[in-house]
Amino acid sequence: MTRIGASLDRPSKSLPNDLVGVNSIEDQKPIRILAMGQGQEKLALHALLQAQQQGQWLLLQNCHLLIPFLTSLEKELEAVQKPHSEFRLWMTTEPIRDFPIGLLQKSYKVVVEAPSTLKLILKSTFFNLTPNVFTESDHPAFPPLIFILAFFHSILLERRKYDKLGWNINYDFNESDFRVSFNIIKSYLNMSLERGTFEIPWITIRYLISEVIYGGRIIDSYDRRIIKTYMLEYFGDFVFDEYQLFHFYMNPSNLTYHDYFIPELRDFLSIKQQWLLQKANIHIDPAIEKNFEKYLPEKIAETLQRNMDKIDQVQISSLFHTRKQADSKYSLKRLFNTQKQQQINDAKYQFLSKNVLFNQFFNFALFRELYSTYVKQLPLYNPPNVLGLNLNAEINYYTKSARELWSHMLDLQPQTFEIDNNFNREEFVKTLCDDILQQIPSKKDLRIIKQKFNQRITPTINVLFQELTYFNLLTSQMWRSITELKRALKGEIGLSFELDEINRHIFNGLIPPLWRTYTPQTRKSLGNWMEHFRRRNQQYDKWYQDGELKLVWLGGLHVPESYLAAITQIAARKNQWPLDRSTFYTSVSKWQKYDDIDEVTQGICLIDGLYLEGAGWDIDNRCLVQQKSKQLIQLMPIIKVVPVESHRLNTANYLPTPVYATSDRCNSMGHGLIFEAGLYTREHYSQWILNGVCLLLNTD
Predict the structure, then answer these.
(1) Would you call 425 exposed, middle or buried from its count of C-beta atoms within 10 A (0-12, 13-18, 19+)?
(2) CA-CA distance, 167 to 157, in Å (whole number)?
(3) What stretches of 350-491 adopt beta strand conformation (E)?
(4) Strand 605-608 and strand 552-553: pairing?
(5) In 128-210, which ranges are continuous DSSP H helix?
């Protein structure tokens, strides 16, 4: 069983030794591999029969894509009387609910988990690289760019841990994406060398990696924005700045957090600068020396010993991945004319960087060991800040894990039991049904409501009629299903599958799936949802009694997009704008509630009840700020929605912020995104993009 991001390309080192005498995959006969999918059923059964007769190994990959076939496969295996003694059947699948229990009970189960922390992902990435991979390009920027690519790849995988704060949609980034990106970087750097230049085509590299390779898997525009932001933060000339060292993440105010950097750059730069200034009479700073001793492999001294007698002169290059070049040349032998062993120990520090000895002397293959050594000393735990997320993202992660665990425990509990000595499950559900029935309002009479407005029907009033139609459908379904469930619990009618499902959900405090069909998107429990239901009813009553709403609770509408479109349509008619060139912008006001409004708001729409996730809001300065500790969401002040012609829209210093119906954000079809708001910021956009900032219509 493989988790998303895991790979079976290499045999697992942790397989049990009692697999019927099988200890090593490499020692067996060649394995026939068949990827499962539509139309592969007959081929798989034929391969199975052949493998049984000839004693072959058969690997069926991605069995989760063809669940109906697994039932037939189970029957075929049960019918086998005397299979060949060397026959083995391997199957890979993602975790799914419908996998046949019989197959699982007869099989050895091996769970291949994808690496779960930044350190482990980096470690796995460098483990899969061959030792000579850094010799594939002589460009001085090649090794550090590969390390940056590995870090970038690991960051993308690690973001999945944080659910919707990481990605709106869970993407299956894998090693093939890294490999193709690796080849792109190598190819373009080698082309630069062929032209006799060290120029790096950053724009091309960024585009191909973010838009084609990794971006080719992205189907959500806001997820693609995250990829682009990482590329702009990690890939550029600034990475090789000699005066302002590059860090993936550094927190000087908190020394307990690790410093994430490109290992060859931070200390090598100091060495190179001292070399050029002192003409190789280098004095090693104790702090730098300590870092070298901690991070760098001992094989460098051996490399120096082997090469010392072969090289008379080495060009001292100040390229350091910039366009500058140093013309000075120094003899290596001059540095080793005294105590040889001591000089070797010194040279271990002095001549480490390829930027000093360049590729005439330095073995690029050492970079794999260098980077692997650096990765090993990284902490196993990395805070969300390293990924650009707020520390509060960790709370979301643990909350989600606990919620999933609780949900599975509810599924495992018995269907009938006593809550106490005098109160059983059926009585408990009956009590809840009675309580729900009391809160269901009578149907809204649309005929009378339409007569009331008569000739004063506006686009927003049409939205009201649409909303009331949806609400009537919901109340009808709730009344019918609750009434029938009560009769079934009394034994008057049979308990159908639909009623049993409603019974189970009500008992567990969940919204029945039938009701969800007629209600806006929500993640609320049944109790919280009933309060939400009551508030919706109150807003609808006020709406058709008072006419146009002065303050709209957008989260209480079934189709909130329709209301915003109606507001824009009214403004376009009034101002004679072309409708296809009309839009709106948002502005966060200083008002916390309706009574605080102290100015005329003619021609604009006021909405409230929106929640900010991924950032905080400074009410006084009206701008985005970092979240307070343990504050996962923040209720926003009243927001103005102002219709405007498209060409007059000014978005400078405003972060385009998606507004979602729930914290589920949106799915692969884009359902859940309501509109895009603009939030004022004094910081760079990238900070908030990586934080996963968004607005929500409803809390959980």
Answers:
(1) middle
(2) 10
(3) 418-420, 423-424
(4) parallel
(5) 142-159, 163-166, 175-194, 202-207
Q: Which residues contact 428 (CB under 8 A, 6 or more apart)?
A: 419, 507
Q: What is the pLDDT of residue 669?
A: 77
Distance CA 477, CA 512 (A): 11
pLDDT of residue 355: 40
Q: 118-241 has which CATH code?
A: 1.10.8.720
pLDDT at 19 over 80: no
Cα-based distances in Å from 427 to 419, 433, 483: 10, 10, 15
Whether the CB-CB separation of 393 and 158 falls below 8 Å is answered with no
Question: Is residue 609's pLDDT more than 50?
Answer: yes
User: How far does CA 254 lie from the centroid of its chain?
Assistant: 26
Q: What confidence tier does 263 reach under pLDDT thresholds 50, 70, 90?
A: confident
- Is 0.70 surpassed by the pTM of this model? yes
Sign of the dihedral defined by the CA atoms of residues 682, 687, 690, 696, in that order: negative
Angle at 378 between CA 375 and CA 384, to 5 degrees: 115
C-alpha span between 291 and 276 (Å, rounded): 21
Which architecture characterizes domain 550-700 according to CATH?
Roll (3.10)
| Under 8 Å between Cβ of 623 and 680 | yes
Is the pLDDT reported for residue 287 higher than 70? no
Enumerate residues 6+ apart whose C-beta is below 8 A from 386: 118, 155, 248, 249, 260
Encode pLDDT of 551-567 as tens digits.
999 999 999 999 999 99
Q: Which two tokens stand for residue 164?
A: 């919707």
The ranges assigned to domains in the chain are: 25-105, 118-241, 263-363, 414-548, 550-700
Neighbours of 427 (CB within 10 A): 13
CATH 1.20.1270 holds for 414-548: yes
The 10 Å Cβ neighbour count of residue 641 is 20
Give dist(CA 285, CA 138) in Å, integer.
30
Note whether 128 and 371 are within 8 A (CB).
no
Write down the H helix ranges in 237-388: 263-278, 286-295, 299-308, 340-350, 354-361, 366-376
Q: What SS3 state is found at 612? A: strand
**pLDDT grade for 535, boundaries at 50, 70 and 90:** very high
With tokens 């009551």, the residue in question is 534
Whether residue 611 has pLDDT greater than 90: yes
- Interval 601-617 mean pLDDT: 90
CB 67 within 8 A of CB 98: yes
pLDDT in tens, 44-84: 999 998 898 888 899 998 888 888 888 888 888 888 878 88
Q: Is the pLDDT of residue 271 over 90?
A: no
The encoded tokens of residue 411 equal: 């599924």
Residue 485 contacts residue 433 (beta carbons within 8 Å): yes
Element (DSSP H or E) covering residue 332: none
Output the CATH code of domain 25-105.
3.40.50.300
Q: Is the pLDDT of residue 545 over 60?
A: yes
